[in-house]
Amino acid sequence: MDVLSDTMAALRTGRPYSAFAERRGRWRTDIGPYAGAGFHIVLRGTCRLIPREGGGPVELAAGDAVFLPHGTAHALAGESPAPTVLLCGAFRLDRSRAHPMLGDFPEVIHLPARPGRNSALNATITLFGDELQAPGPGTDAALPALLELLLVYLMRAWYEERTARRTTTGWCGALADPAVGAALRALHAEPSKPWTVAGLAARAGLSRAAFARRFTALVGRPPLTYLTWWRLTLAARILRESDAPLAAVAQRIGYTSQFAFAHAFKRAYGISAGRYRQERHDDHEHLGAWEMTTITAGPAAL
Hints:
7 strands, 2 domains
């Protein structure tokens, strides 16, 4: 099981949004905090990203991508007679039970264009820009698929750069660690299985005590605590994306009864599973303030 893909799928909620923008001369746009992750890609020209709190300006050139995994408030600004062409967008994330992987991300991730680096990301950016600048038959189907690919490649680029620098803490370390990575893949592949610490330790090839210490140190919570957390996170995704009966949801994630699942879900989320499903369906009918100002307004906003 690809744990990174599994995690991203569970975090994502609602529709992604994107817009193509062109500005020239002296300009600035302030963008408020957003309950998701945003990105900006410079297709042509230059500009700078200015975080609202902490950190200095980030100078952006053609081909650069900047990813804001926490929806941090920021500004974009430029000053040039030549046009600056931007691709901007956002992914909605379920922040009610944020994955510990998000804690590894800085507020701003700058991925500068470099020959021979991040080739898949660069190819996706090119395709995305082409579709937005010259829509054709099938564009409405292509854009959502390209947005999903873009999120994958933004996160993969960050992950690969951390791995190349031999970063061994947090989730980069957990996924790269042979023992803990094997246990995580097993949990994600079969979340409904009645796992025990001893069973996971056997998968990892460690003693029970050594495995528990290593897993907790890298993942940030004990193995069975993580399993419970992941099961309920997966349940929330199923509730958002389907009309499956609660009994079926409970069985799919490893609960022996609907009552036990309902109790665990309400304890974790503060509301019943049925109410959670209804509220998330209602949420999808509305755009957030960030989307309204940055996406719907399109080029005029930037």
